Amino acid sequence: MPAVRVFVTLKPSLLDSAGRTVAGSLQHLGFDEVQDARIGKVIHLQMETVDEARVQEMCKKLLANTVIEDFQYEVIG
């Protein structure tokens, strides 16, 4: 059965305070190579069939707030 994995993150122009906190904490723990972190969400959808236009519609209508968030998706299976 096909599935879709949707990735939702804040737009790059917006401050991601949670991501900044994670990046700072990792640096504090000695992981100096971390320059930035962005926090987002992953949504896994099991589907009977995958219609990419319908997936985009789902993202725009419910899964992502397109005013402040970007989304990407990948079809698996």
Offer a few descriptive terms:
single chain, 77 residues, alpha+beta, Mth169, Chain: A, 3-stranded antiparallel beta sheet, 2 helices, 3 strands, 30% strand, elongated
Nutshell version of this structure?
The chain is an alpha+beta fold and 77 residues long. The protein contains two helices and three strands. The longest helix has 12 residues, at 17-28.
Describe what this molecule looks like in 3D.
The protein has helices at 17-28, 52-63; strands at 3-10, 40-46, 69-76. The N and C termini lie close together (7 Å). It has one domain: Phosphoribosylformylglycinamidine synthase subunit PurS (Mth169, Chain: A, 2-Layer Sandwich). The chain has a 3-stranded antiparallel sheet with strand order 2-1-3, covered by helices on one side. The chain has 77 residues and is α+β, with helices and mostly antiparallel strands.
How many β-strand runs? Answer: 3
Which class in CATH terms? Alpha Beta
Radius of gyration (CA) equals: 15 Å
What class would the helix/strand composition place it in? alpha+beta
Span between N and C termini?
7 Å
Strand content: 25-35%
Written as H for each helix and E for each strand, in order along the chain, the element string is: EHEHE
Principal-axes geometry comes out as: elongated
User: How many separate domains?
Assistant: 1
CATH topology: Mth169, Chain: A
* Number of separate helices: 2
Q: What composes the largest sheet?
A: 3 strands, antiparallel
Mean pLDDT across all residues, rounded?
Answer: 97
Name given to the CATH architecture: 2-Layer Sandwich
